[in-house]
Design brief:
- The protein is of the alpha+beta class.
- It folds into four domains: 3-20 and 400-559, Up-down Bundle (Multidrug efflux transporter AcrB transmembrane fold); 33-133, no CATH class; 146-224 and 389-394, Alpha-Beta Plaits (2-Layer Sandwich); 227-381, Gyrase A, domain 2.
- Helix content is 57%, strand content 16%.
- Helix 16 (474-488) runs antiparallel to helix 17 (493-525).
């Protein structure tokens, strides 16, 4: 390959590495730990934080305009100015030349608009960081700490209950449904960034990094989920929505919970109806007042599937109740005909429908899109897992151990790098410096690949990094020794470099390809720590081969392209 083509490839790889590494560098280097904890929390936690923060900010801004309307807007609220400016333009009013508290307030149609701008600011920032966290190099449980739980499908109990024999494909399909339900439960319980995946043929592995309460985790693993059917008080619902529209700052507590107004009588509960917004978050659609008495508990749901209306084709959710649930639901719907009934999950209204006639066992709900119907069917099925799971292993890893191992791993890598750098310069002089530059580039490529594919960095992965550091220069040593042999035979510097790379090529390929094959086998057949070590080793070997055959060759070509080229390959060469 010509020099220009080789240079283009190296520059392209460097740019791609920079793109892949940017999220990791930004996340670990520039995002405060407190903000990380918020961004990696559940969607429910993010929503409550944004609502609570917006409530506090609105209260403070109202206090500022009451005390000093012409005062300057505090810097932390500067993000409101662009929004207010756009509102001024849409209202066809002159945009103020200078901004103060009063001019910003006038840039919003009402108090609710200001509250929405505040809430959107915090929500968008945290969601962007949450998306960023999914693109960075992940730390395993042994480095970050957390819990590892192994669940096994109770196949015998399922077959005895249903009278069927399950194939491997059937078990996998049921476990996939279990994973969807567990993800729903875990997010509602506020557990941070869980990793849930099928292991083997009949097991599910759950890894929860960070601090996790074992009792709380067990509660969603063994619990039935919080799902109820309750009757809506439509008169009080209209009154509550009017009140909160006129007083948006009174709708939520500082913790983001819905306040209970004084006019609500005993036996009534204030909650809200949420729909998924563009960010995948529950977006408040309206407030709802429910009868506190639970009409039907979700534990009576036997099954739930999506369907479509035979006449209109509109998506529907159909679910079956057990015998006891059917009797309870028939009584509920008989006494509340023409009333509005809400499906409530964990205190949030997920769907509402008017009761037109008494219903016993088979229930159909409609009035939403296909994706919403699928989501709701999962919500309904959280009352019971499709196939029950047995906890066969549960292990906790302390966060302090993670900090110690990260520190020890970094020290080991730095010491290894230092010794390799020193060795190469002492033995090969200027060519040793070229090999050292290639080694640094090799580490950058390795980290960027791990980051790009969201591979998890564990203690054994660090061992793979340390091993890669030691092995990364072997190709350079082979090439350099071949070049020295050619120089000893009387060839010119340029001819020696060309011959050295040509003769070393297959030796390097044979040695590294066999190592990569072994690493790939370990990656496919190994589990846990073995897989992390194998992945890191395979990527490191491939990267070191690229550096030896492309980057090092390019640097040699550059050093020998001057007027008086002189190859620096040994301290004994004059």
């Amino acid at each position: 390959m010509k020099k220009r083509g080789r240079l283009f490839i190296v520059l392209l790889v460097a740019v791609i590495c920079g793109i892949f590494l940017y999220p990791t560098v930004k996340w670990y280097g520039f995002v405060p730990q407190e903000t990380k904890d918020l961004a990696t929390g559940s969607k429910l936690q993010i929503r409550e934080y944004a609502l609570g923060q917006a409530t506090r900010d609105l209260r403070e801004l109202k206090s500022l305009i009451a005390s000093d309307p012409q005062g300057s807007l505090p810097d932390q609220y500067g993000f409101l100015i662009p929004v207010a400016k756009e509102n001024y333009k849409s209202m066809k009013r002159d945009v103020p030349r200078s901004w103060n508290v009063e001019s910003v307030f006038r840039g919003f149609y009402n108090e609710q608009g200001l509250f929405d701008a505040l809430e959107s600011h915090y929500r968008t920032a945290l969601l962007e960081l949450k998306t960023l966290s999914g693109k960075v190099l992940q730390l395993g449980l042994d480095l970050r700490g957390g819990m590892s739980i192994l669940l096994e499908a109770d196949v015998a109990a399922y077959e005895a209950k249903t009278g069927t024999n399950l194939s491997g494909a059937d078990i996998t399909a049921l476990l996939q449904e279990d994973i969807a339900i567990l993800n729903e439960r875990i997010d509602q319980f506020g557990v941070t960034e869980p990793d849930i995946r099928i292991q083997g043929t009949d097991q599910i592995l759950i890894e929860i990094p960070g601090a996790a309460d074992p009792e709380r985790v067990n509660s969603f693993l063994r619990g039935k989920g919080s799902l109820t059917f309750q009757i809506v008080d439509q008169e009080l619902t209209a009154q509550l929505n009017t009140y909160f529209t006129e007083n948006p700052g009174e709708a939520f507590t500082d913790a983001g919970q819905i306040k209970r107004p004084d006019f609500l009588p005993a036996g009534k509960v204030a909650t809200a109806y949420y729909v998924n917004d563009a960010y995948g978050l529950d977006e408040l659609s309206s407030f709802v007042v429910l009868n506190e008495e639970i009409g039907l508990d979700g534990i009576h749901i036997a099954n739930a599937v999506t369907g479509s209306d035979p006449i209109t084709g509109q998506p529907t959710v159909n679910f079956e109740l057990d015998t006891t649930g059917g009797e309870i639901f028939y009584k509920l719907t008989s006494t509340n005909t023409n009333e509005l009934m809400a499906v409530v999950q964990d205190g949030k209204v997920k769907a509402m429908a008017t009761i037109t006639e008494p219903i016993r066992n088979s229930v159909q709900i409609k009035g939403f899109g296909l994706d919403e119907a699928r989501d709701l069917s999962i919500v309904l099925k959280t009352a019971a897992l499709p196939i029950e799971l047995i906890v066969v292993g549960q292990q906790g890893v302390g966060a302090s151990l993670g900090e110690d191992t990260v520190r020890a791993g970094l020290v080991a890598i730095l010491i290894g790098l230092g010794l390799v750098f020193f060795f190469m310069v002492v033995i090969y002089k200027g060519s040793g410096l070229i090999a050292d530059v290639a080694l640094l580039f090799n580490l950058i490529i390795l980290l960027s690949v791990l980051s790009a594919f969201n591979l998890t960095l564990t203690l054994t992965s660090i061992a793979g990094l340390v091993l890669t550091v030691g092995m990364a220069v072997d190709a350079n040593v082979i090439i350099l020794e071949r070049i020295k042999e050619e120089l000893a035979a009387g060839k010119s510097d340029a001819a020696s470099v060309k011959a050295g790379f040509a003769k070393a090529f297959w030796t390097i390929m044979d040695a590294n390809v066999t190592t990569i094959i072994a690493a790939l086998v370990l990656s496919q057949l190994g589990s846990g720590s073995i897989k992390g070590f194998a992945n890191t080793l395979a990527v490191g070997i491939a990267s070191s081969m690229f550096n030896a055959l492309f980057v090092v060759k390019l640097m040699y070509d550059a050093s020998l392209s001057g007027k008086n080229p002189r190859l620096s390959v040994s301290w004994r060469r004059k």
